[in-house]
Amino acid sequence: MQVLIADDESIIRMGLKAMLREMGHEVITAVNGREALRMARQHQPDLAILDIKMPYTDGLQAAKTISRTRPIPILLLTAFSEDDLIEKATDLPIHGYLIKPIKPEELSAAIAVARKRFAESQQLAARTTKLETTLEERKLIERAKGKLMETGLTEAAAYRALQTYARQNQQTIAQVARALLKK
């Protein structure tokens, strides 16, 4: 896995890099949030570990931007266990929060959990999108049936007419409904 580390403290970066390489990961590093965003765009890592307090762009903003532009599992890293930072972090689509210093076994566990939570969130997002699309299509079909019913057809006959036209023209009923409503 390719992992992006962003931390303004070189000792922390080097330590994390060594641990991650020991685990078999490829590592790219950044010294601040702005560089982390550039590296994320350029290298498209599989996971990011971002220090919260960095110059130029902090880890919270970097996490927000990365998750919006190309979602990946993100772990936040800090030397502080301040409640306000934790509260801000919980409002972001992150998958873990680590407090320095980090032990290899903690890092390994956090990565495993982050990857699993990220995969679950991606599946839920895809399912939500599919359900929203299905709901919109059903509403569209109902409106198209209503338009056909204005011509004197029953609800069942209107639906059959949509089905028949869709089958004959190798389209979905939603496509037929959309075209009918545009007339």
Helix-strand layout with pairing:
Layout: E1 2-6, H1 10-22, E2 26-30, H2 33-43, E3 47-51, H3 59-69, E4 74-78, H4 83-90, E5 96-99, H5 104-149, H6 155-168, H7 173-182
Parallel strand pairs: 1-2, 1-3, 3-4, 4-5
Structure commentary:
- With about 180 residues, this protein is α/β, with parallel strands linked by helices.
- The chain has two domains: about 1-100, Rossmann fold; about 130-180, Orthogonal Bundle (Arc Repressor Mutant, subunit A).
- It has helices spanning about 10-20, 35-45, 60-70, 85-90, 105-150, 155-170, 175-180, and strands at about 1-5, 25-30, 45-50, 75-80, 95-100.
- It has a five-stranded parallel beta sheet with strand order 2-1-3-4-5, sandwiched between helices.
- Strand 3, helix 3 (about 60-70) and strand 4 (about 75-80) form a beta-alpha-beta unit.
- It is elongated.
- The mean pLDDT is about 90.
